[in-house]
Amino acid sequence: MTDTLMVGVSGIRGIVGKDLTEDVVARYAAAFGQWAKAHQPLVVVGRDARQSGPAFEQAVTGGLAAAGCAVVTLGVTPTPTIQLAVEYHRAGGGIAITASHNPIEWNALKFIGPDGIFLDGADGKRVLELAGEDGGARGRLGEVKTDGGAIERHLDAVLKLPAVDVEGIRKRGFHVALDAVRGAGGPVMRTLLERLGCRVTGIHLETDGRFPHAPEPVPENLGELAGLVRRSGADVGIAVDPDVDRLAIVDETGAPIGEDYTLAFAIRAVLGGKGGKGGKGGKRTVVCNLSTSLVVEDAARESGAEVVRTPVGEVHVARAIVRLGAAIGGEGNGGVMYPPLHVGRDAPVAAALLLTLLTREGEGGGRRVSQLVAAAPRYVIVKAKVPRGPALERAYAALRRRFADAEADTQDGLRLAWRDRWLHVRPSNTEPIIRLIAEAPSDAAARELVDEGRRVCAAS
């Protein structure tokens, strides 16, 4: 790993033209192709709207073809659409060319296995080993074809999901404000919403990759969408990231409500809220990672579901959903994973479930987004970081002694939990630092946890 080229078992990412070049991209694509051939010599390739995408798509296609793989290209496509296309074509794997929410100067390759889930563990390590071996790609040049129907299949599948109330949503006639940050999501999300009978007022729906603001859909980047909601009188605002796997919500007053509510609302849509009316076929289990907000636990508890937490990272959540047969899962960054379709983060699914919940809650003049938020307990998340020293295990032991009354989870660093608050301390995967994140009913209580965690780590 160089200063900017981040290499991991699920793929590579870096700054375009500095460490991430067409030669580097072709080499890693060829390595993935060699790995994929053991399953099926066919690889699906799609990309987000970044301006480096076309050149990198050519490099990826060339590397895969040189490795002897046939290639199916999708063009500008959401990452969840690529995952679904891998399964549809029964391919040996897929490559998503996207840096997701990273700034405009970045791009990346994300490696997808034949099951539509990102690589991890031994498979990812094997691809990296192949990329480091001398000798380059092997095999006869593979055929390259285009699949123009992947997005339509994806949207059709969303509209057929058991938890999505298509007719109810259409009857409500929602007005939705949409910000797609000029990534891959503009046409896809507009089409989905219009097929659900919504009136769409959109900004930045073009797919030219010229991000008008920082692309991560967090509250500080949603000011323009918030203003659009207020001006247009929309019922709700929706923002997606450049590769359309994360979704954030702005309420009808123009207030961003935080990404964790996306998963919390999706849980309530699927499992039915009080009385547990939903959850057709599937266990009443919800999976999320260790740093996901308690609003998700509250939604699951209200629906009579058990919460299982995993290490941070989408692939960990996905594997647990499959292993447990969970009803739904996801991450607190706006990523919803609904297994009746697939176990990848999917913004179109999140949007359909959000509107289903609003349809149900709005019957008879019921609650809107702001009222749903106000009716549940509120929490504040505080984050900090400290330099990483050599005695990390000693710091964990000291934290456990200091907070002896907490429930400890050591899957990914150390998470100390109480019923209404928690502190998660873990080493960064990309920097020589320790990350501390705490959540509590008030800002002061969350800061107190972080400050005490930082003090104990520094003294260890």
What does this structure look like?
It is globular, with a radius of gyration of 22 Å. The chain has a seven-stranded mixed sheet, with helices on both faces. Strands 16-20-19-18-17 form a five-stranded antiparallel sheet, covered by helices on one side. With 460 residues, it is of the alpha/beta class. 37% of the residues lie in helices and 23% in strands. β17 (407-409) and β18 form a beta hairpin. The model is unreliable at 274-282 (pLDDT under 50). Among the domains are: 6-153, Alpha-D-Glucose-1,6-Bisphosphate, subunit A, domain 3 (Alpha-D-Glucose-1,6-Bisphosphate, Chain A, domain 3), CATH 3.40.120.10; 259-345, Alpha-D-Glucose-1,6-Bisphosphate, Chain A, domain 3; 380-459, Alpha-D-phosphohexomutase, C-terminal domain (TATA-Binding Protein, 2-Layer Sandwich), CATH 3.30.310.50. It has helices spanning 22-36, 53-66, 79-88, 121-132, 150-159, 166-172, 186-195, 223-232, 260-271, 294-302, 314-324, 347-361, 369-374, 392-402, 443-459; strands spanning 6-8, 11-15, 42-47, 70-76, 93-97, 106-112, 144-146, 175-179, 199-203, 236-240, 247-250, 283-289, 306-310, 326-331, 335-337, 380-387, 407-409, 414-418, 421-427, 433-440. α1 (22-36) crosses α4 and α6 packs across α12. It has 15 helices and 20 strands.
